[in-house]
Amino acid sequence: MDNPHISQELADEFAVGALEAGIRDLITLHAADCHECAVRVSEAQDLVAMLALGAPLRQPPQQLRRRVFAAAGIGRLGLLHAAARRIPAISGIAAALAVIVALTGMFMLRSDVSDLQADRDRLQSQVDEALRQEVEIAALHLRLDEGERKFFALQIAADGDRELLLAVLAPGTEVAEVFSVDRGVPNDSFGRLIWNESERKLFFIASGLETRPLEETYQIWVARDGRYFSLGTFNPRADGFVRFEATLEDGIDSYQSAIVTIERAGGELDRSGPSVFVTDLSGLR
Amino acid sequence: MSAVCNRDVQAYANLYERYIDLVYSTALRVLSDRGLAEDAAQEVFVRLWRKPESFISERGRFVSWIVSVARNRAVDDLRSRSRRRKREVLTAGQPADTGVADIADENENPLRSVELNDTRAHILVAMKEIPVDQRQALEMAYFGGLTQQEIAAHLHVPLGTVKTRIRLGMKKLRSLLEDQR
Questions:
Q1: How far is CA A8 from CA A1, A36, A259, B104, B149, in A?
Q2: What distance, in Å, lies between the first and last C-alpha atoms of chain A?
């Protein structure tokens, strides 16, 4: 799969049901339009369903079957037809007699059954129409609230940050996951890169970062054709959270990737330290 | 399923017989209440009859789909009951189930389908290989209906730790099941 928008980790979290409602809705919306991501999510859901197979098995009470069929509107007529089909072919005459006996009583009620079936079909059409409208309204609701969903998706990271929230809500905002390169960064760190096209602003947010010693700092770069351009340096808060922003007047299209490295305090003119985060910027275009 | 789309009652009855135990067990695992699990299972199968086209075969296997529907229906019920309980202040601060369920015994209540039994046997072997903390995180999310943040709060661990456990647990499960193919 080339350049998926939903990472494997995010697809797994979605499939197992561990994501907040806002992010869940975003992924559902995206997967509806992106075949590659839909396949990735579907594979994760397939895998997660295996957890159910591993759970202890219990049999429901027998009467549940009757309840289900009754609630589905499959009455005795349908069940008798199903029963008649199960009668073995080798007992042909006996089978025919059994069916005739079974159906004899029903001929007497045929007109009533026909009326009931007509009523049921009419009601079913009404239910189907109501369901169709409900689905359309739900889909419209999701589209109208897409900006609101994006806000919820980053609510925790935003931490009451109005500017970041406005950037997220703006049309044309794209979000990419930042991957830990596992050097100097705890395994439970994660980050996001947000590009706001209208403001030409790039936000880097991350959590779980370790504070560097006084002689070191984190530095963020964007890369083009093997050359690195510094966007600036930053250090995380005491709780490991960082929120960094930079303006890229010439946009993001000409850059292939962004990385975060550990450099000497004050930053470096040329990238030299180890990489800690990397992300593919093509997902933000 | 195409037969069910054509209102074939026998086909529907066959699907019911094949999957009801799995659907009911999944709902019961989430809801821990037989009556509620029966209601959830009933709703799953009624929906299957009324809207069989909601299963799209290109998107995955039927067993995965029906288990997802059952799990989601049960979790929705669980969450709405939880919200109702909070409003009624009946059981303040009652913690969610954080225990790891015993892995099912492969001899217990075999499924009514040879293919499902075969798959289940592989799953049971694989589940025993997943570290307990990873399995716990997966089960709290999947069966407990908890988000990562809620799991972190219940277990008093950082959010990142929960994400890592889920990531590694899924990776392990994926690798174990691929090895067994």
A1: 11, 12, 20, 28, 19
A2: 18
d(CA B163, CA B151): 10
Looking at residue A252, the DSSP 8-state letter turns out to be: S
State whether B163 and A59 contact (CB < 8 Å): no
Residues of chain B numbered 5-44 and touching chain A (CB < 8 Å): 9-10, 12-13, 16, 20-22, 24-26, 28-29, 34, 37-38, 41-42
CB-CB contact of A25 with A144 (8 Å): no
Q: Chain A residue closest to B42 (CA)?
A: A68
Q: Are B20 and B68 in contact (CB under 8 A)?
A: no
As a whole number, mean pLDDT of residues B30-42 equals 92
Q: Which two tokens stand for residue B75?
A: 């979790």
Subunit contact A52:B70, Cβ cutoff 8 A: yes
Q: Which long-range contacts (CB under 8 A, 24 or more apart) does A4-7 make?
A: A4/A36, A4/A37, A4/A40, A5/A30, A5/A34, A5/A36, A5/A37, A5/A283, A6/A30, A6/A31, A6/A34, A6/A37, A6/A40, A6/A41, A7/A177, A7/A179
ipTM score for this prediction:
0.82
Interface mutation vs chain B, best among A58, A155, A156, most B CBs within 10 Å: A58
What letter would DSSP give residue A33? H
pTM over 0.80: no
Which residue carries 């004899």 as its tokens? A104
Q: Which of A273, A60, A208 is nearest to B19 (CA)?
A: A60
Buried b (16+ CB within 10 A) or exposed e, A152-176: bbbeebbeebeebbebbbeeebebb
Q: In this predicted model, what pLDDT tens digit does every residue of A123-150 receive, in sequence order?
A: 665 555 554 444 444 444 344 345 544 5
| DSSP bridge pairs for A224 | A227
